[in-house]
Design goal:
Layout lengths: L3 E4 L5 H12 L3 E6 L2 H14 L3 E5 L5 H5 L8 E4 L14 H29 L2 E6 L12 H24 L3 E8 L6 H8 L14 H15 L5 H12 L6 E4 L1 H12 L3
Parallel strand pairs: 1-2, 1-4, 2-3, 4-5, 5-6, 6-7
The structure holds NADP nicotinamide-adenine-dinucleotide phosphate.
The site of NADP nicotinamide-adenine-dinucleotide phosphate (NAP) has 24 residues, from helix 1 and helix 6.
Length: 263
């Protein structure tokens, strides 16, 4: 039952909490981080907690960093690293969207392809994509991010079906967190205010939007990562994971209803 599990973006938030949870369950966890400073902090914390974590820097947009995983025999790859971007599609600089897709989709897929080499050869493995409920329902003013998660969810579902054809015992699942308080959402929603100035179509609505965002997050965000971490652990340990794992469940229900009513 003990698995070798690599997780990206484990320098903070959901990724780091998942690393602790999987290590506590006896797995060999390889927790990778965006930069060296995060890696050093995480190594120090693992020592102080007395937890065996293997930690190294893996910027998923760096080909050299990605190549490191070829030396590892992974049972599970958890594609958790992600970036956020916000702003109206009517006026956002499209290069901002490209940068989000570079991390959330293209680099994630490139890393996955490397992991799949070993998994398909060994006829064993699981790949998890940490997408979002923003990849199921379009989120106005978060579309640069939301679109990247739609694309990631589509990629995960399509890859799952392709690997099923191979009958190679390599599984793919989507993790779809709702709003969870890690600081990610606040940083993402604030990014648009750096450029949505007086020239923006929405300049007259910025103050109302800021207040509405603060209210929404205060109301909706889960205060802890516990529920989504439990789902990731379940998916990582499953013999045959299902397609989607969503948490908190109430936000998952909200998304289902939104889709039924055609949002
Ligand atoms: N929190 C939510 O409400 C929520 C909801 C749905 C989905 N998600 C998804 O959950 C995942 C984790 O998010 P989180 O809330 O835990 O936020 P987070 O703490 O910001 O986690 C994202 C991690 O990815 C890292 N990262 C960014 N670019 C990277 C790259 N090129 N290579 C490697 N690592 C990179 C970040 O490093 P830096 O901190 O240095 O940028 C950060 O450590 C993300 O994919 C996010 O889209 C979060």
């Amino acid at each position: 039952m003990t698995k070798t599990i690599l997780i990206t973006g484990a320098g903070s938030g959901i990724g780091q909490d998942t690393a602790w949870a999987l290590a506590a369950r006896g797995h060999r966890v390889i927790a990778t981080t965006f930069d060296e400073a995060q890696a050093a902090r995480l190594r120090a914390e693992a020592v102080s907690r007395g937890v065996a974590l293997q930690v190294f820097k893996l910027d998923i947009t760096s080909a050299a960093d990605r190549a490191q995983i070829l030396a590892l025999e992974l049972d599970v790859l958890i594609n958790n690293a992600g970036v956020g971007e916000s702003g109206s599609l009517a006026e956002v600089d499209v290069d901002r969207i490209r940068q989000v897709f570079e991390v959330n989709l293209f680099a994630t897929l490139e890393l996955t392809q490397l992991a799949l080499r070993g998994m398909i050869a060994r006829q064993r493995g699981t790949v998890l994509f940490v997408s979002s409920i923003a990849g199921r329902v379009p989120m106005p003013f978060l579309m640069p991010y939301s679109m990247s998660k739609f694309a990631l969810s589509a990629a995960g579902a399509g890859l799952r079906a392709e690997l099923d054809e191979l009958r190679c015992n390599v599984h793919v699942a989507l993790i779809e967190p709702g709003a969870i308080h890690t600081g990610f959402n606040q940083a993402m929603t604030d990014r648009k205010y750096a450029w949505m100035g007086p020239q923006s179509y929405f300049a007259g609505q910025v103050e109302r939007m800021k207040a509405a965002e603060a209210r929404t997050f205060a109301l909706l965000e889960a205060k802890s990562t516990r529920s989504i971490v439990a789902q990731i652990v379940k998916a990582a340990e499953a013999r045959k994971p299902r397609l989607r794992y969503v948490a908190p469940w109430i936000q998952g229900l909200g998304v289902r209803l939104a889709r039924v009513f055609g949002v």
